[in-house]
Amino acid sequence: MPSISSPDTPRILLVKTSSLGDVLHNLPVVSDIVQHFPHAHIDWLVEESFAALPKLHPAVEKVIPVAVRRWRKHIFQAATWAEINAMRATLAEQEYDFVIDTQGLVKSALLTRQALGTRCGLDRHSAREPLAALAYQRQYAVAKGQHAVERNRQLVAQALGYTLNTPADYGLLPPNVPRPNWLPAGDYAVLLHATSRDDKLWDEANWVALGRYFQQQHIRCILPWGSATEQTRGQRLAEQIPEAICPPRLALNDIAALLGGAQAIIGVDTGLAHLAAALDKPTVGIYTATDPVLTGLYAGRKAENLGGIHRSPTVDEVVKTLQELVKR
């Protein structure tokens, strides 16, 4: 293992840039580190659109945003290279004891090489893109077929030389923001109806039936969205669910606050459902086209996954599962 400039206060840069769910699945790593190195200095390199997430963990000191997705589209523009050079200059200001890439992609490996410090990552048999391993000075084997949270934790534990002995802890604190004017007083549930692929969607009739169940429990339904198509769907569902609200478009920090104050969250395969579970809220994940074993909700006793590939859960299954979660 590389030597540490100050064994009690190692400086660590975590590289996990995207997507929303992947960034969330890396947060328990921070809790693990501070358990074994309480005075560690932890920074995080992340895609600009997800920069709010690492900031929710109180042990993350500095978040360094990158914009790889945007840079790719404008790679020949001077403004793009100015931003890239500014990112390099920021990384050059601090030498780290460990630079740990838990993403295992060529793009994340290239970013890792920009930082000063011993570069650590998955070996070629463990990484999602084997070529990424060439960028690391220390490579570690982590078995596939496990949930992403545990793979991240095992990689960092090997790199820093400690043994995992506690369950995963996301360590998140919901942002303290005022209740928005559009949200009336009272209990509410968040219905995360939107996702990146049509085959991951849950039938709209199911959402309406679920929404009416909540209305009977005197719980208002909130249907957030992130695109014009999702907004149209949210408005259509809100018209059929009594007292439901399709809110204005929300920034990630505002969504985190909304989820943190909810009585329950029901969501399809989307990163926001992982955020709800990480905030330790009663959360039911609905899967219709993907296997939740590897990347499903993974947080304590208040989150459950239903469904799977070509297996959509019923409204009754969702309601029964939610009732059990609330009892816990």
Radius of gyration: 21 Å
- Overall structural domain count: 2
CATH topology of the largest domain: Rossmann fold
* Distance, first to last CA: 42 Å
What is the molecular shape? Answer: globular
Give me the secondary-structure category: alpha/beta
Report the portion of residues in β strands.
15-25%
CATH superfamily of the largest domain: Glycogen Phosphorylase B
Percent of residues in helical segments?
A: 25-40%
Q: Mind describing the biggest β-sheet?
A: 6 strands, parallel
**In which order are the strands of the major sheet placed?**
3-2-1-4-5-6
Low-confidence stretches: none
How would you characterize this protein structure?
With 328 residues, the protein is of the alpha/beta class. The chain folds into 2 domains: 11-160, Rossmann fold (3-Layer(aba) Sandwich), CATH 3.40.50.2000; 188-327, Rossmann fold. It has 11 helices and 11 strands. The strands form 2 sheets. It has a 6-stranded parallel β-sheet, with helices on both faces. It has a 5-stranded parallel β-sheet with strand order 8-7-9-10-11, sandwiched between helices. Strand 4 (95-101), helix 4 and strand 5 form a beta-alpha-beta unit. The longest helix is centred in the N-terminal third of the chain and has 17 residues, at 20-36. The radius of gyration is 21 Å and the shape is globular.
Could you provide a short overview of the structure?
The chain is of the alpha/beta class and 328 residues long.
Explain the layout of strands and helices:
Blueprint: E1 11-15, H1 20-36, E2 41-47, E3 60-66, H2 68-73, H3 78-92, E4 95-101, H4 106-112, E5 116-122, E6 138-140, H5 148-160, E7 188-192, H6 204-216, E8 220-222, H7 228-240, H8 252-260, E9 264-268, H9 271-278, E10 283-287, H10 292-295, E11 303-307, H11 315-327
Parallel strand pairs: 1-2, 1-4, 2-3, 4-5, 5-6, 7-8, 7-9, 9-10, 10-11
Helix pairs in contact: 1-5, 1-9
